[in-house]
Amino acid sequence: MLDAITPEILREFKARMHLDDGEDDNLFRILRASHEDLQSICGSYDIGTNERFKELVFERSRYAYNDALEYFYTNFLTQINNLNLGKALESIVVEGDSDAAAKV
Fold first, then answer.
1. Fewer beta carbons under 10 A from the terminal one: N or C of the chain?
2. What are 34-51's pLDDT values in tens digits?
3. CB 84 within 8 A of CB 37
4. Radius of gyration of the CA atoms of the chain, in A
5. Using an 8 Å Cβ cutoff, are 76 and 69 in contact?
């Protein structure tokens, strides 16, 4: 499996956080853990094409970087639930009941 956390994703995160070089290994680790955790909760999203998912990965990574991860899930519960629900509705449509998504 290709690593979803590319050097470009790392560069974007560092720019957003106003971080310089020197912590790349730690930042890669944080971003990978955030990506893996959020995929297990929200479903499989492409961080390169889904901006809402990327935003959540970056936010969780920011909280982890600042040793405040325990606050992330409460503060971003709505966004997490929206992605999770979106993935559930997407699977309903893929399974062939396109009317089911409209009924929800």
1. N
2. 999 999 999 899 999 999
3. no
4. 15
5. no
